[in-house]
Amino acid sequence: MRAVVTRVTEASVSIEGEVRGQIGQGFLVLLGVAPQDTEAQAKRLADKICALRVFSDEEERMNRNLASVGGEILVVSQFTLFANCKKGNRPSFVKAAGPDVAIPMYERFMELCRDHGFHVEHGEFGAIMQVASVNDGPVTIVMDTDEL
Question: For the segment 9-18, what is each residue's pLDDT rounded down to a tens digit?
Answer without folding.
Answer: 999 999 999 9
